[in-house]
Amino acid sequence: MVFIVILRLIVALMILESVIGQVLFPGKIVTKSSDILSSYDYVIVGGGTSGLVVANRLSEDLQTTVLIIEAGGFDEQEDFITIPILSTANVPILGSGAKGTKYDWNMTGVPQAELQNRSIPTPAGKIIGGGTVLNGMVYNRGSKEDYNRWEELGNPGWNFDALLPYFKRAETFTPPSAEVAEWDIEYVPEYHGEHGRVQSSFPRFVWPSSRAYINSMRELNVPILKDSMGGDDAGAFWFLLSLDPKNETRSTSQNFYTPSRPNLHLLANNQVSRVMFQSGSLNVAAIGVEFSTGKGDKMNQVSAVKEVILAAGALHTPQILQLSGIGDTNHLSYLGIETVVDLPGVGANYQDHPLLVTVQSVDISINTGNFSNATWNAEMRSLYDEKREGPYTTAAGNFFAFLPLSLFTNSTSTFISQASAQSPAQYLPPNTSSSIISGYAAQHAILTRDLSSQSLANQEFIFGDTVIIPSLQTPFSRGTVLINSTSPFDFPVINPRYLSNPLDVAVLVAGFKYARTIRATSALQEIGVQETYPGMTVQTDEQIEDFIRDGLNTENHHGCTAAMLPRHLGGVVDSELRVYGVQGLRVIDASIMPMLPAAHLQATVYGIAEKVSATHPPRF
C-alpha cells in the first residue's frame, strides 16, 4: 500500500512538474525581451524562409528549446500579401510603380558604374516568413547540374540527387485542377512532395496568351518539358506557384511555425546586432547573441547552449558576421572591429539574377489582363472574392522558358573564347583576397565550361501578355555586401557590381535579340504582338547595350555572400554549414550557396533548410 501511495505521489509530482514547465515555458510569440528565457539550446537569427523551417524541425524534440529572433513582425493578411496577382506590388520593380512596404527593409544598392550610375533597389523581407511573403510566388528548381556544381566546388553531399528528398520534404504538391485540364499540363509525381508545409500548385486561371507562347516555343524548336522539378529545366514549361489550392492564396514559410509547442519562442520586432563569443585555448565558441528593438534602445543578450544559427538572409547575415568580428581582417580593422576569425569571404561572392523588361502591345481581343479598365477589374475581383476564380488567382503569367545559351544565340563559341581569355581576378573588386580569387577561378572555369551545356539554363525568359523579360541566370559578375559602420542599424553597403564582367552584357544583348525572335514567330504575330519598349529604333548592338545599361533591374535573388566553399577558396561555411573557425555557429540561408541555380530561389532555400535539419534529432 505504501509503495502504491509513493508511486502515485511520484506520478503526481511528474505531472505537476510538466504543468509548471508548460506554464513557465509556453510556446508563444514574445513581445518583450524581458519575457524570454536567459538561454535556449538554439537561437535562430531570422524568422524567414530557412529560419522557420529549421526552428520547426529542431522543436519537434520537445526537450530542445528554441528561440527565433526576427527584426520584423507578422503581416496583417493584406490583399497585396495574400492575393497572387497582387504579389508584384510587394517590392519595387522598375516600371511597375511598386513601392517598398513596411515588410521590406527597403534597402538600395550603391550607384552602379556599369548602369549609368543608377542605384537599384534590393528588397528583402523584414517579416515573419521573409521573402516567401514578398516574392512573386514562383516555385521551381534548377537543373541537376546547377546543384552538382556545388558538390564539384568541394561540398560532398550537395548534389541534386542528394537534395531532391529535402526539396520534396518541404512541399505539398497539388496536381492541376479541372479548370485547367484543357491545357494538358503534365507532371511527374515522383518529383513532388505530399506532406510538406508549403503548398505548391498551378493556379486555376491561364492567360490566353500562354497558348501562343507554347506554340512560339515549338516553332523555335525549344523543348516543352513535362515537369521541370526533376532536375531538367532546360526548356519551356508551366511553372508552379507557392499557392494554397484550398483558397487560392499565397503559401509561405509561416506554415512551418508551430506556436503551440512549449519549447519554441518567437521574439518579433527585435534586431540582432552581433554574435557573442567565448574564446578558449583552441577554439572560439558562439555563446549567444546581442539584440535590440532599435537604434538607441537597450541592448539585450540571450545565451545559446548548443548553437547560434544565422538565417538573416544574404544581405544581413554577412553584416552580422562582420559586426561580430568575422570577416576580412583588413576591413574589420579599418572600422575598429577586433577580428575574431579572419574570413575574407564574408560578404564577397554576391550574386543576383539581373533582368530586362521589354514591353509589347497585343490584340485587345485576346488580352484579358486589362486591369486599367475599372469595370473589368471590379468584375474579376468579385470573381476571385466570391468563387476564387479568374486572373486574381494567378501571377502575371503561367509559362516561361529557361534556355541554354546555344538555344538563343549562334555565338556560343565566341562567348566561350572571350571567357577563356579572361583572368580570374580581372573583373573582381580591387584588392580582392587571394583566397576569393582562387574560389572565383574555380567558379569561372565551371561557368566557362558550361556555356556550351545543353542542360544548364543561361537565361530565363518570362512571358506575359504585354512583356517578355530576359533574365541572366549564370552571371560572371560578382559583388559585395560590406559594412561601413559599427552600428547594426545602419544598412550594409550593397554593391552588386552588375555587368562588371563584360560577358554579362554581351549575353544579355543576345537575350534581348532572342526576345525579338520570339515576337517574330507566327504564333505571336497571330495575336498581334508588337514591341513598344524600347521600340524598333533600337537596332545596333551598341544601342541595345545602352538600353540594357539604362533599364537593367533585378529578380531580387540575393545570394552567395557566406559561401559554402573550402576555406582556401574563400569559403565561409563548410558542407555542414558551420562557420569556419567557430564552434556553435551555423548559417542556413541563401548566403551559403556558392553559385546561384538557374531558378527562383524559394524552393532551393526550403531544400537547404530541410537538408541541414534532416535527421531526428537534427545533426546540429
Automatic annotation (TrEMBL):
<comment type="similarity">
    <text>Belongs to the GMC oxidoreductase family.</text>
</comment>
<feature type="active site" description="Proton donor">
    <location>
        <position position="557"/>
    </location>
</feature>
<dbReference type="GO" id="GO:0050660">
    <property type="term" value="F:flavin adenine dinucleotide binding"/>
</dbReference>
<protein>
    <submittedName>
        <fullName>Related to alcohol oxidase</fullName>
    </submittedName>
</protein>
<feature type="binding site">
    <location>
        <begin position="135"/>
        <end position="138"/>
    </location>
    <ligand>
        <name>FAD</name>
    </ligand>
</feature>
<keyword id="KW-0732">Signal</keyword>
<dbReference type="InterPro" id="IPR012132">
    <property type="entry name" value="GMC_OxRdtase"/>
</dbReference>
<keyword id="KW-0285">Flavoprotein</keyword>
<feature type="domain" description="Glucose-methanol-choline oxidoreductase N-terminal">
    <location>
        <begin position="125"/>
        <end position="148"/>
    </location>
</feature>
<feature type="binding site">
    <location>
        <begin position="49"/>
        <end position="50"/>
    </location>
    <ligand>
        <name>FAD</name>
    </ligand>
</feature>
<dbReference type="GO" id="GO:0016614">
    <property type="term" value="F:oxidoreductase activity, acting on CH-OH group of donors"/>
</dbReference>
<dbReference type="InterPro" id="IPR036188">
    <property type="entry name" value="FAD/NAD-bd_sf"/>
</dbReference>
<feature type="domain" description="Glucose-methanol-choline oxidoreductase N-terminal">
    <location>
        <begin position="313"/>
        <end position="327"/>
    </location>
</feature>
<keyword id="KW-0274">FAD</keyword>
<dbReference type="GO" id="GO:0044550">
    <property type="term" value="P:secondary metabolite biosynthetic process"/>
</dbReference>
<dbReference type="Pfam" id="PF05199">
    <property type="entry name" value="GMC_oxred_C"/>
</dbReference>
<feature type="active site" description="Proton acceptor">
    <location>
        <position position="600"/>
    </location>
</feature>
<dbReference type="InterPro" id="IPR000172">
    <property type="entry name" value="GMC_OxRdtase_N"/>
</dbReference>
<dbReference type="Pfam" id="PF00732">
    <property type="entry name" value="GMC_oxred_N"/>
</dbReference>
<dbReference type="InterPro" id="IPR007867">
    <property type="entry name" value="GMC_OxRtase_C"/>
</dbReference>
<feature type="binding site">
    <location>
        <position position="272"/>
    </location>
    <ligand>
        <name>FAD</name>
    </ligand>
</feature>
<feature type="signal peptide">
    <location>
        <begin position="1"/>
        <end position="21"/>
    </location>
</feature>
